[in-house]
Specification:
Elements: H1 2-5, E1 7-9, H2 11-21, H3 23-38, E2 49-59, E3 65-75, H4 78-146, H5 152-187, E4 193-195, H6 213-234, E5 239-248, E6 257-265, H7 271-339, H8 345-377
Parallel strand pairs: 1-4
Antiparallel strand pairs: 2-3, 3-5, 5-6
Helix pairs in contact: 2-4, 3-4, 4-5, 4-6, 4-8, 6-7, 7-8
Length: about 375
Amino acid sequence: GMLAQEREIAIDEAIAIALQNNKEIRGYELKADEQKALTGTAVALDKTTIYYGTDQNNIADNNHPLQVVGITQNFSFPTLYNSLKKAKRIEQDISITELQMQREELIVQLSMNYIELQVLREQLNIYEDIDSLYMNILKGATLSNRTGSMSNLDLLNISAKQQQISLRLKGVRYNIDNTYKQLKNLMGYDSSFVVSPEIRVIDLTNRLINSTPYYQLLRNREALSAANIGVEKKRLLPDISFDYFLGTNFFDQSRYYHGFEAGLSIPIFAGAQRAKIKAARLAMDATHYFSEYEIQLLEIKQVNLLNSHMRLKEQLDYFNNTGSQLYDEIFRAAGLSFENGEIDFFRYATSIETALQIKLDYLNNLLEYSRVTLELNYLR
């Protein structure tokens, strides 16, 4: 029908589309570009002063006052510019790492959304099958009730069971609709599509904590606070100023007189600056302790997730080795026994629900397994 026409988008393609279209990611990319542009601001010299003046006391050889044009430039001590540049480079690294974290965050969100939709579609198939089974049984039961071979109470019970399944089916359809909308929103994708029918079991990448962007971010923040100490220390160095001027007048026998001055501005009253250096040192220590604490939390989180991962993997393996055969067997045997009149509808319904629960538990485990594996692969 209609669905056959829709294009199927596999999980990897969905992730690629999202990374390209997602507005938040775009924002972080621009922030990274901004930091890159700001690295050029480290060597920002003061404005150049150009001045003109004349002074009646300043008389040239031709007995007329000189008119003086000059140019002044102040510099910080050259090593300060290097320190500022280093700090700016680390800020650029931080913005790149933040972008990487955002991308990974999106990959996790999108993958979970995608797999959730796949699980819901599996549930939909199961409930649709059971729903149509029960509908047929209800038709037969209604006939039997008319001919008097089934009591009203039994018919009401069968009808109630059928409605129960029908309501669950509606609930799943509603969830599919919501999850599908969320997925499209994350992808920034307008056209309709379907997810792959096969749910891919995500492999564990065994990623080391120190290769995660979050770890890099913590270390970069430490590096930045260390670089800031360097900047504040260099501010204790003297500033340098150069002044070049030229004097002349426009009377007979005028000449050009050159002048030059160089000066150092020395921070004699450096108490405030020393306080800033001390504060920068304290900030660095604080950042270091904060990082160590966050890394410990990550390690604990990783251990907990790995334990969950092993438990869920065992449950999935159980289903694949035993559970899925059990599900098929119960379904088949219950169907045969019911058709042959060996069991009544209620024994049949109980068997179907037992089988259904095995399959639903498996799907819930698969969803949880995917979540835990993604958390481990993109630890943050």
